[in-house]
Amino acid sequence: MNRIFVSMQEELTEPEWFDNVEAFVSKAMKELSFDGEEVSILFCNDEYMRMLNKNYRDIDSSTDVLSFENDEEYEDEEGKWKCVGDIAISLDTLPVNAEYFKESQNDELKRLLVHGLLHLNGYDHGEEHIEEGVKPECEMLLLQENILDKLKDEKIIL
User: Fold this and answer.
1) How far apart are CA 61 and CA 131, in angstroms?
2) 106 with 136: CB under 8 angstroms?
3) Cβ(87)–Cβ(44) below 8 Å
């Protein structure tokens, strides 16, 4: 069992699919063998993402997804938990990426969520990124595509 906390930047309105995120992330975490772990996901706009990127990576621009590892452990009445970290996803960039990759926003959102989880699970892709029409080579991006293929029928955005 894992814990998943999904939230929105205060100024933003929850999209109609907001409540579907947790079920998908739970399935993706199971595929990645997460167990007894906690993750939080924040949906935000490009301005907020730019601030996060500037403050934590010294990059003065927005991005689609950021992951912040934590690895703290705690115990409560339900058992022991490991906070693996936080994922931030820009809702402004989501449709832009979907158009670039010629994918649905549903598929792009799933890619961003799995990508963030892989980073929290210790994976890195270095300078390689998913590019339209280019098959990935590094372990992280190959695993990402494999998991997305397994979860291809899952819907977040209906």
Assistant:
1) 19
2) no
3) no
> Could you give the CA distance from residue 119 to residue 54 in angstroms, rounded to a whole number?
19
pLDDT at residue 137 is higher than 80: no
DSSP state of 131: B
Tokens of 150: 């397994």
Average pLDDT, the chain: 93
How many angstroms separate the CA atoms of 88 and 83, rounded?
15
**pLDDT value of position 139:** 86
Q: Within 13 A of 110's CA, how many CA atoms are on the CB side?
A: 26
SS3 assignment, position 137: coil
pLDDT tens for each residue of 12-60: 999 999 999 999 999 999 999 999 999 999 999 999 999 999 999 999 9
* pTM listed for this prediction: 0.92
Do residues 39 and 25 make contact, with C-beta atoms less than 8 angstroms apart? yes
DSSP track, 19-82: GGHHHHHHHHHHHTT--SEEEEEEEE-HHHHHHHHHHHH---S--SEEEEEEEEEEEETTEEEE
